[in-house]
Amino acid sequence: MKERGSVSEPVAGTAVPTPSDNTRQPTDAEVPDFWRTYVVKLLENGEIDEPVREPVSFDSVLAHRWIPRYGMKLSSDPAYLPRCGELVLWICDGLEDGSLTLNPATGRHEIPGNDHLRHGVPCWHAGVVTQIPAKDMHLGDITVTPDDQPGLIYSGFRVEALPHPLGNDKSYSKQYAYVPLRNIRPFNAWQIILKDQHWDKWHPSILNAMTVMSSWSVVRKYHIVGKDRNCSIHCKAIFIGSELLAVSDAIRLKPEGLEYSDLQQGPVPKITDVMVITKILFQLIDCVDNDPYQLAKHNGLLISGRVYTNDPSRVRKSCAFHDPTAKDNPQPLTQHQVFTAFRQANMCDYGPWYKMANGEECNVTLDAVVGRCYEPIAADLMFGTRSLEFDLLGVMEGRNWSAQTDLRIPDGMTWFWGECRAETLGVTELLGIECGPSAPQGDGNGQAIVSTARESRRRQDQIPASEPPATATYSSSAPQGEQRGGLAQSSNIGDASDNNDNDYDDHENDLTDAESGDIPELPPSAGHDVATESDSMEDFA
Description:
- The protein is of the alpha+beta class.
- It has twelve helices and 21 strands.
- The protein has helices at residues 34-45, 58-76, 152-155, 190-193, 204-211, 313-316, 335-341, 376-383, 392-405, 421-425, 444-461, 508-515, and strands spanning 47-51, 87-91, 101-103, 108-110, 124-131, 157-161, 176-179, 184-186, 215-227, 230-240, 243-246, 250-253, 273-287, 296-309, 354-355, 361-364, 369-372, 416-417, 429-430, 433-434, 481-483.
- Strand 10 and strand 11 form a beta hairpin.
- It is globular, with a radius of gyration of 24 Å.
């Protein structure tokens, strides 16, 4: 490969820049490509360490205003509460005369009536949480609907049915309800909640949600640090499949070396390791400044944090997070240390906890993450078990099924990377506001207003307009690069409007089959036993 700044032979059919051209000029005449600017700084100076600023980008301006407020709420809310943008299972009706409980005789979640007779399994739907209650929630709300005024508009979660992410019919987004917490369960636990129900009996929205289980997108890129030709972009949170994970969350880690095929050959292994997230890093590896379509040859994502285990043998055992200097009989954390290490309450109820890697930060990839670690009492009330692996089989089966059915995932890859949550979910409307190709801001009048406002922002921040190089027509707010380590990105990274219907013309028959229910068979797992002030989606869309 030629050194940066060397002269290369022109390719036939491409424009040849004159010597006076600045080939490093950031692209996109409307919104400057700030990520390319940061890459240029890194390659010219050899290092970079500064906050991310996109003053002309309306998305970034709004994010600076709204997301910090919701981030503070996330750090204080219990882990069992659904979050904006998450996928959940929810019940439209049927709980007027009872609460959802686990029937010990059948192992199913059923509705008992006031006469203590079981009324059977409710009809579950899958949807996206677009608004959370204004009032504070408590553990009792998992089983009892708050009896207060003025009603569910203030004490319920707004949940919108999820349309097929690849289909043209998005009318499900108009079907929504304000749902009490007791009618909601995390989508990752679909295998427990839908126990003994064959998939052809499910509501179509559940299969739609299964399709996006192998997708991810980061939230609020706020700082960039780099050296030589590599850099890391710090993010506040990340959507992985159905869940939103933020810094300071405790997440459950998949047993080391476990593959999906292993689950078909024996019982579900125990989860023993939990990580408290300290950093979420989007990485650009081997950055380039002469490619109009990519900023780096490779990219990936790392989640960093401190790892704890409830299996003392793993402290010294040869594994990814072992501590070779640990004593033969490691000492568990004291109650005060557990209280300091985890923000969730009553984590001591899971048993004694031990430090891994001598308390140093460890790194994991997307594949190692199972989901949030819930408070023990909340896990009891929602799932009837405190085992950390209660949803392990469901999460891995969901991701495997998604990798086979989500046509946005390139062959040989296992993940779909979207620029925002609206793109990964394939929705065109959230909270009644259009966010897809038909959005009002996409028409001529809307574009004129946006352009005028951007010019005002340029003058306010003294940012000169940039001219795109002759060979570059691509623009996006997302860092670009070739995925590595099993990560897959979409062919068009940008907002939801980038993914138009033409992207899937070659798969029209596949979409028709999927929407009609003629889809690949799910593994027969729904019957397996497993050991036992209002904020809205506008902040993330």
